[in-house]
Fold this sequence. Notes:
This protein is mostly helical and 110 residues long. Helices cover 49% and strands 4% of the residues. It has a two-stranded antiparallel ribbon. Helix 2 (31-42) packs across helix 3.
Amino acid sequence: MQSDKSKALIDSITGSINTLAAMTDATAKSAMFKDWLRAVSRFHHYSFNNQLLVLLQRPQAQRVAGFHTWKSLGRNVKKGAKGLQFLPRASARRPPRKPTSNGKAKDSPR
Length: 110
């Protein structure tokens, strides 16, 4: 037989799981979540933060490119059109190579 304490714990866990399942179902049906999924599927090669920026700045965007990229594709950009703001790529700096006693450079550990 289960003690009252373990029975209460099981009931609490079951209730939490049911609440979480209901919240997950509600989120999956929301329009905002569906818009976010569309943006992620269109701009999968951008960082998460830039995907959110595209969604917030221009939710109806189908393609995103720079001015010269549009020109190279034979497309025109309207004069005075405003661009989207993006976060720059984060580039990791490699530490300089340290020379060893034999004169060859050795990669330093990260």
